[in-house]
Model the fold of this input.
Amino acid sequence: MTGSPPPRSFWRHFRILAVLLSGATLSLAGFFFTREAYQRQVEAQFQAAARDRAESVVQGLQHGFEDVTVLRGFFEASDEVSRADFDQFLAPILVRDPYVQAFQWLPEVTPRNRPRLETEARRTYPGFRFFKLDEAGKPLDLPADATFHGVYYVTPYRTNEPSLGYCAETLANRRETLARALGTGDLSASGRIRLIQETAKQAGVLVMMPVRDKNGRNLGVVQGVFRMGDLVQRSLAFLEPKGVVLRLFDASAAGPDSLLHEEPSPLPEQGRRLSNGLRLTRSFDLAGRTWNVEVTPAGGHYVLEAPARAWAALLGGLAFSLLLAVYVRALLASEAVVRAQVEARTHELRLETESHRQDAQALRESEARFQNLIEVMGEGLWVMDARGATTFVNRRMAEMLGYAPADMVGRPMFDFMSEADVAQARQNLANRREGQGAPHDFRFRRKDGGELWTIVTETPVVDEAGQVVSVLGVITDITERRRQEQAQLQSQKLESLGVLAGGIAHDFNNLLTAILGNISLAQLNLPRLSPAWPYLENMERTVQRATNLTQQMLAYSGKGRFVVGPLDLNLAVQEMSHLLGVSISKKVAMRYQLQEGLPVLMAEASQIQQVVMNLVTNASEAIGDAEGIVSICTGTLSYDREALARDFPGQAIEPGLFVTLEVSDTGQGMTPDVQARIFEPFFTTKFTGRGLGLSAMQGILRAHHGGIRVYSEVGKGTTFKLIFPAGMGGAFEEDALAGESDWAGEGTVLVVDDEEGVRNVAAGLLGSMGFDVLTAGDGLQALDCYRECPVPIRAVLMDLTMPHLDGVETFRELRRLDPACRVVLTSGYNQQEASQEFIGKGLAAFVQKPFLRADLVRALRQALEP
Done:
């Protein structure tokens, strides 16, 4: 018996049930799919925000700690850093990085240098002392035999006074950081510390770096004191606010000291904080420690709960399933069912519209951020269309040229460029349109007429068809760098010419010494009434003139012979006024404007008068046969370092009060090409002349620590402005010894010189005084001769510059053989320059080449007589 088929109602209900189950299944699938997509979107947004903040903090720490490296480089590149140098160098860094509590210089303090350091510091801070803190926080003096590193320089000084003199080895944390820095030679950061000058609750970190001399010997450490809260806030200042909390940990520390700073979300909380597992941790190593940046969501932000649209999808799917079941059951849709379907679809469209609105808002916000970035960037930005007309410049570009951005739009870039660079700029622009070219240096004209040196980097912007629609140019200001390069080039040029002039003069002096000495010997062996005597005197005068020429060359090199003393510049000019009057054309009138009460300057009178004479005769020759005026003005003026760099580039002058001398004429003036060469040796615009006047004058100024500046305009005249430090140095005196011609000596004298002619002349002159003479060609021969001589050697007459063993080394070895050895030094350089290495070492006397017999007698008497 076969069973009867299921009734129609069963299949009808079965189909309705199947529709309902399928709809419910699809609705659940849509719900979970939508929820997962939303959660992935939230997680991606959180990760992006957290990653941006973590990387900003990492870069902020690296940038901040880099300041300590820069400070170390400044110390190692400088021969000596004063407190003023320290403050001046760090002033712009402190303005740029306000999270720095202080920069400090901690020299290595030993019992040997401690008194000097404390004495120098008390000149600025009378109560200065090196100290440590006991357990109660009271300052204690350090033992006199202690070696430590103490805070010696600190900037800014205000609010950081308590740290001045503080010993870095007092606390274990700082002691371990200092030891790591000295051991590795690199950056070393401390853990969380409480700063002795900090009253707020934020944590501090010390960053140290050792400073070593050229031989690798430790000189001390530079130290940066950072407020970690301010540093983190500074790193996040330029980011868009997000609902996240950021924490900075010192992973190298344990316990509560590991947390350095917690930065809350700038957005208000939107509900209770949920632990949804979202977290980003960024670990990195810096300055010998490991750091962790941890970012978590703030309350109510980045919640991973199911969104409204997921529930809407679920409910809509179930409703649709129910409607579909009704439709299957009734085969016809009722009006109410159709209306419900239309409403469901309308709801979906509303959600899509809202999504599009949010996307448009995000795009507008992105454009606003991009516009703000362009306006605050440090480089100039210049956009031109395909024809070269300006379509946009950012605020920085307009400020560089002194225009308003609206005044530049619509005009070609070439309107603002120096005419000499326009052709090259047009060629570069054409090359860029073809995809070629490279960055190039160009000069622009500022609105005030000044010149702006830049590096221009151009990038073409093409459309989908590959056609250039605009050109984007990035403009970098290099005006200051160019000025420094030109000043350095001028300084190196002058230094090279000075070395050349000094070397030639030194060798020529040896020849003049031999000639002048032979003349003296010939005069000793001839009676005064001999017919040859006048000829010898003429030869001596000629050699003296040649000596003056070498002195000019030595003056140019800055190593001339000076007898320095207090000098009234007004009196020196007045004394030579008659000589100046007869030395110039009768059509030229002299005008004097001498300021009364000038400070005394330390100078060699004849050299200063030579400078005045050279300038006045040059001024008269510039006027020529026409009528004109030559003016001499004196005065005083103070210069700081910035003004000296601007008005006297390439000249090593210390700031302070200066006595000024200006010589002006109404002559024909000089072209820029002539001005660039007037101080070169042997360059002259005269038909006759050696071309050494101005170059020797520049050497005299350099030796007096002064400076010179030239103002000239073709057809209007020239002004030379000279400055001399007021009251610099001390008077140089020489003991006058009488009766040189009749003085006689006895005993043995050793003559050491690598020039045979000089040796023979010196031996002859010493023999004429009654000495027995031994000679040596270099320092090694001199030492052998001194050891082997059977009789005592009363004095050694020795040249400074010799092969194998120079004068300094020979002097040291002679004093080692015989501490009582009396050495008379000879050199073509001036006494101050040649005797620099012998100060405080017992040099008996000095005689400058070329010398007469009287000069040699004077030096021997000074060395041998008590």
Q: What stands out?
A: The first strand starts at residue 100 and ends at 109. The mean pLDDT is 81. The CA atoms of residues 659 and 745 lie 47 Å apart.
